[in-house]
Each structure stands twice: as structure tokens, then as C-alpha cells.
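Q: How would the C-alpha cells look for this protein?
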Amino acid sequence: MDLDELALWMARDRESPLGMERHDFHAAQVAAAVGGGKIVDLMPKWGQSSSDDPDVMLNDLMGGP
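A: Here is the predicted structure in C-alpha cell form.
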């Protein structure tokens, strides 16, 4: 991919009405199909942690302590 094409894709990504939430949904969809469970339960809960510490947020996301 040359620089012009990269710039085009970056511009399209900024204009797209679908953000990273769609990627999270797709990952949860696959996890539900493979391992069971509800998609809503497998979606990450970004910004709902009581701490801004990245380690705490990652542990929350991964279901750890």
C-alpha cells in the first residue's frame, strides 16, 4: 500500500459512522458463537471502571481480579 492509499483509508476511517464499537461487537459475536454466552455479556465495558489505571481496566475486561 502506498502513502496515498493509506491516506485515503485513514480519511475513510474518520468519516465512517461505524467506529471501534463495531469491531468489539464482531469479536463478541464470534466469542458467543464459539464459546456460548450472550453477545451483550461479552462486549467490553469501556469507561465503566472506577479507576483510570490501564492494568485495572485490562483486568476488568479479562474478568480478572
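The mean pLDDT is 81.

The radius of gyration is 16 Å.

Upvote if useful.
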